[in-house]
Amino acid sequence: KNTPVLFAGVAAPNKNHEETKKTKSAALIDMLARRLRTAFNEWHNAGVKRVYVGAIGCGVFKWKPEDSALAMRMAIESSQWSGELVLAMPDKSMNTPFSMELMKLQK
Q1: DSSP E strands, 1-107
Q2: What's the predicted TM-score (pTM) here?
Q3: d(CA 12, CA 25)
Q4: Of the listed ranges 1-5, 54-58, 95-99, the one predicted with least confidence
C-alpha cells in the first residue's frame, strides 16, 4: 500500500529542558536518530513509500538544522525504509542543511 505519511510526528529531545542541557550534542543527535529510525522502520513495515518531513526539533526545541538533518540521515541509513523523502519546510533556509545532509545517503 503506497499511503503517504502526511506528517512525520517524531519528537526531538527538548534542548531547553534542564536535564537535556547537560547532555552532549552527539548523544542528543543519536537519541533523535533512534526515534526517527523507529518511525522509518514502521513506515517500511506499513509499505509507505513517500514520507513528508519538516525540520524536526528546529522550532521551540532549538535544534540546529544541521544536527536535525544529520539525525535524519543516520536514521534512514540504519533503517529498512527506502522511498521518497519530501522536505516540507516553510522556512526555506532550512532546506539547504537538510538537502546537503540527505545527498550523502547511499540508498
Answers
A1: 50-53, 84-87
A2: 0.85
A3: 12
A4: 1-5
